[in-house]
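As described in the Methods, two query proteins were run sequentially through the folding procedure within a single session, without resetting any intermediate state between them. The first query and its resulting structure tokens are shown here.
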Amino acid sequence: MKCLGTLLGAGSLLLSCTQASATIESHPLLNQQHLWEQLPTANSVSIQETTDSARHSNSGLIYRLEKVVGEQPQYEHYSAYFQGKPVLDSTLVIARNAKGDIVQSMGKLLRGHIELANNAATLQQDLVVHISALYEGKQPQIENSAQAYVLNQGKLLSVTVLQLNHEGHREQLVLDNATGDLMQRQSSVSFFSPTLTNNYVAGGAIGGNEKLGAICYSPQPDSMQACTEYRYDEYAPMGARLHFSDTDPNAIFAQFSGFPLVVNKDGNTCRLENPYLSTFDARDHTQTVSYACGANNENFDSAAVTQNFSTWFTYSHASEAHFNAGLVMQFFHQQFAELYPSQSSACDSSGYCIKPLKQKVHSNTIYGTNRAFWDGEYVNYGSGDGYNFYSLATLSIAAHEIGHAINSWNAGIGSDGIDGAINEGFSDLVAIAVMDYFERNASGAYTQTEAFIKQFQDQAGQYSQNRKWWFGWDAIYQDNGARFYELPSWDGTSIDHIADFSLAKTEHANGGVLRKAFYELVKTKQWSIQDAFKVLLRANTSGCMFPNMSMDEFGYCVAQQSEHIEIADKSASQRKEDVVDVLLGVGIVADTNLSTLEANTQVSYDELSYDISHLTADTIEQISAQWGDGTTSVWRNSDNQPVYPFLQKIHKLPADTMARAAINVTLTGGETRSAYRHFFSRPANVNCPPYLNAPKVHTSSLKIANHEIPSISNDYTSAVDTRIPLAKNRLYSLTFDKDLSGKKLTVLYDMNKNGEFAYTEHLLNDVTISGNTASFELNNSTPSSIALMRIAIADVDYSFLDSCGVVDDGQVIDVIIDADSPDLPIIADFTYQVLDENRVKFTNNSPADQARQPNNSGHFGFNNQPGNAENPTQR
């Protein structure tokens, strides 16, 4: 049948093809209070029963809550569905006040008996041939296709909705399934949502693990009933519904109110794929993971869930991955839309680039099951082992790994050195931003569970409970995090300040400076997590960043982006000042115009030291050291006190103190320079003793240089109460109480002051002892001040299989060394006494420990007469 058309507007053509007696009534709702009792509610659906004459019907007309927008009033958006397919143009909106009472309604309410206007469930003609005829023999590219209904003169008309690309121009067509007649043509990029054009539906599923509990991902308030009734055993919690909605109308899953578990439905098969995400199982990754949709598109097989949990203590790897990655991709698309509102493509050289994501679960390697990684093509999640880690597809891990993909598509910085620190640090910031996005938009019974509440506790200073600022808690068996934001060094390896950067550390550890700066921007400068993240995300996509950049160059790029982030009550200059300040707090100079002080601060467990001896003493008017524990050391030129003791100073803080120290120097002329150091003080001791298998006591005493440790009777000895002073670049001896020829000797030095010993921290590495002595030295790379040193004597090599160290058939002695730097001489304070015959006696008030083998030198009088006595007398 040919249809007559009426031109309704530019590029829009509506054709009426079917005539039937009206059975469905459409009632306008504006100001019609009398109809409010018939409206759907957020806790239920409105169902109109079908008549016997309704063909192809296995359910009634259902209203689904699509999204909720606003607060006062709050707008609930509903759409009508029949047989699981949407009814086009059926949206109605209900406005409610703060008490939940309806104050207005808009749109049209459909009610009455349902009849179908045609018998066809799908288009009965060859789609390609038919479309070619519509375009005069040309063949547009079919991008998407979906089934829907249109209300046509009181009956539901089954239609096919097509998204086409015709010579670069995108169009949407609506075709009558019975006749193939063109009902509607629209020229635009977004007239019809992916829900229709790709058969995408919101799926339900189970996720979570032993720690998180059974999470019932529920697109509707009453969905996933089987999940909520599921319980693995009497010790496990019952399943709890989790709803997630994003009221942004431009969210990529807006047609599902932002619910991110969106699947592709083909008949009774639902596949974990949509335009933004595809989820595979690495054990068979030829096709995306699929399941039988059922009536409600829910994926819940009790037996399969129980079997999976019995093996991995995770309920469903694939469902969890698809929900979490969908949420992350929606988050990024939303962020990019706000940062680059004029960008029309998803990958633009002048803006951001985001591609459809592919991911695999059960992606285990020769390194085991407890890894997650981005390989340049897929995000890969290990299965977990069920006792150290659960599935690695939890939300924080998924966000982190997808962050690597975003970096790969945008800044493209590498994975080693400074690049690696920025890369890993950025991904950790993705995780906290995504978790915040999740927390703010999640609802349902699951958000009232102990696991959810614990996960989002924000208790500043309470490191053992501040889980909101932990990374990876959701995937770890123990009540712990993999990394931390408030104080990164609390994990024992990460750094709080760039001064502690070391290639011997992992990139994750070196990335601690980004986590610390981000935390301070939020907490100290009162930025929101989302605003703070936008600065970092824009830096990654602005074109400023490049491979092998320095950390200060990175800081500059970040600071420059602050001007593009609008924050209420903060001017552009204030925003930049905030960013520059927090970056400076971790040692990153973000502005070349900033005058800073090179203070050479060093943190050694519970001691903080600084060294400004490079400054010319005569140019200093005042030195002020605010140590961060409430005490201050001040020197003023006007007080006529010696300046030299203040050029190099050490301060001991109480253990387990969060210190924010500041060193301020005022120079002649009034210029003030400042240096900042934030750190967490810890006792000067190892984090854990070594593992000793078949221990043996090889020596009962040990002499280190001139310092003796007598009466050693145990396989492990901790002698950290007394400091042993040693100088760098000098050979020292270890003396044993007997001949230990043939034994293996390892000497380790805690270079990074983290209380552990790594392979890269050895002074002697499994050397064979000859006789009763051995020699070692502290080289130039050894940091000054105190540090732990470990001496291990065994029959076999020392092992680093555990960070605590493993020794077979041997013993371990831990001591503490006070290392000196001969390149920076001690400038002594002194007193003097005038003697007869024009002589002056000088008394050294800053003697060096003789174990350091010090040399003394001085110059006296107008002619700089030299001397080398410790307490000289000169004419």
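Immediately afterward, the second query was submitted; its sequence and tokens are:
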Amino acid sequence: MGRTQGMSTVAIIALASAFVTHATAHTPTASMEPALLTTLALALGDGAIAAADGHAVDAAHAVHSTSGYADVGPLHFVKAVANTDFAWLKWMLLAPLVSVILCGAMAMFKVKGRLPALFTVATFGLSTAMAIALYFQFGPTLFATHAPLTVPFMDWLSLTWGPGPFQSFTANLGFYIDGISMLWMLFVTVLATLIALYASEYMESDLKAGYARFFFAVSLFVTSMLILVMSDNLVGLYLGWEGVGLCSYMLIGYYATQPGATAAAKKAFIMNRIGDLGLALAIFLIWTNYGTVQYDSLFQAIAGSTSEAVQGGWSKAAIPFLLLLAVCGKSAQGPLFTWLPDAMWGPTPVSALIHAATMVTAGIYLLARMAPFYTVQAIGPEWAETALLTVGWIGCFTAFIGATIACGQFDYKRVFAYSTISSLGYMVMGLGVGTAFGGVYYVFTHAWFKALLFLTAGAVMHGMAGQVDFRKLGGLLRVPGFRLTMICMLLGCLWLATAPFSAAAESKDIILLTALTSHVQQVQWMGWIGVLTAGITAYYAFRVWFRLALGPVKIEPGADQHADHGHDDHAGHADHAHGGADAHAGHGAAHGGGAFHPHAPGFRISLVLTLLAIGSVLAGLPSYLAHSQGFNWIQRFVQNSSAWMRAGNSEEHGQILGRDAHSTLFIIATTVVVAGFLLAWILHAKNRALGDRLRASMLNTTGLKWIPLGSEHGWYVDQFYNAIIGVPAWLGAQLLAFTDRFVIDGVIVAAIGRFPGFVARVFQPLYTGTVQSYALTMAGGIGLIVAWVVWVWLSGGAS
């Protein structure tokens, strides 16, 4: 593990070294003078921008896309304000770091008990309180002045090797607080606190094993995510980026005795390294073109340029594509999505943390934060169009592929994992089609209901001996102790399926509305594919819930009470603080062949599920307020950030199929969602035998069997990677091993080692130890020399 952490540190040092060794003969391609603008957002009103002092400022550098997209509003920048009055923000970051230190010490000294969970929940709760306090103290000021807040923390990297431009590099530890960073801080800290409270009960079977180690990794995970979100520069973001990658490796492979868990951890780490390379190269190119990695200076530099003045060639044009590669790795997009389903080998609270609050949302945050690099002012109109279309298509493709794979899974936890891939695709597509508001709003709503879905899945696994195959369970809505769990899962499935008037529907519809009303044909195609995907999502979401909740009661327990934990037997939950003695005894008997008694969730798990259900409903409150009061709370966050918003994409839209866009989309979206719901109800609730016969018939039909088999096996993407990368790499390794063993060691090294012995055996007869033999040898040698001299002499005379 130390080696892995070292790799992250070395990567950062190498990146800084690359900056230092870069040639100094560069000239800035964008104005480095302080400009009036530092935050990129949408101006919903007229063509002027309100400066911090309230005076209207002409948008001299307004971005009006020539790429065919709908016209973009002016880039709205307001200079960041430094304020040391918010120095207390450092404790939002230091609080979970204290938990890291305490839990690490307890793990090192093998302390057994519930103290690690207590410290983790308490410190996360403190960070949550400070995030809420920050919103109430700074939020009104941000919304009024549009000026981000910078809070210096401590000096870190400051290198200078000359007096001119591009001859210095600075990356200090500080905080950059604008709309999206504040929003991420709010939901990351709140959800992390709830998940830690849930885990305090869920992981109690590990009290005598890895309890402290688990909470050490979770605390480090949240600390890294906060560093990523709060940092005021790209190097700090990269540090947090590597941190969440390292922690995901530790937590996915938490049960290291299981080969599947260690393989999944290595797979996640390696595939994320591909994206990490893209981010490192993007940061390097940003510095070479702009001379800084500080957000404040970067956004000023972009604001000070125009599309006609964009220079830098490929080095500037490559930046948005390298950033997209980073997003694909961390947020499981495009060809790099296969690591996320395998991450299910980690404990279920880890799955909730990865899918809802940390890790995968880091990629969306990066895309929103670096949105200025996708504007015509940063890379010119031609590259801006190509970059945005690439972002949109990758998100659209991933959303559709993830949904189709989810339809073929029987492991309900993996269904939810593929649903995350699909949902992330929608978010990326939203940013690609030009609605940062839609993409970010869906991140917020998705975080709540996805945490709810994973934790309800964990509650079922927790009580059903780790059973994850929904074909072996049924009727859980009528099982005592599981009604609340199944009702909460129903709410999560409704939100996942984007049921009408749900928070998820409100946010996803913004993305679809923007795409379908675009003037660009390709973007409209993305919108229609997104609508189709919504129907598929409704089908697979209720396929899971109908199978688990309805029908006759059916319980086939798994191999142990925490199959994803990798434990063989826990003696009937001996360490759990909930459930009666009879339930314990019954559960233990189940593993020995007796009757099985489901283990109902305890108070803490039930409390967390209830709070997440309430939070999922309230996540739609911003849209409900928008309908009644004319503003959206999340929209105000995004408008006051560096995220790119398109003018009027939530207020003024064109038409869909020649009719009013809003009402038409509502009718179409509701129709496809209801169709998916009804199909799931017919095949998995009303007549399950029909669904089973339909699948069997497709499997027995030559031209159709590829559909269920392909969906079940993830369209064989892993097998494809194995064929084009894994097998050649294995064959190359075998060739190298053969060469090393039989050619280098067997021939070359052996020959070198045996040569002295061969020489010794050749000359050994000459050394007998007797004077007579030595004299004879000397005489023979002299004779040979004389003969050679005579031959040379005679040969020379003859010529």
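Residues 1-68, 561-593, 645-651 have pLDDT under 50 and may be disordered. We note this only descriptively and draw no conclusion about the first query from it.
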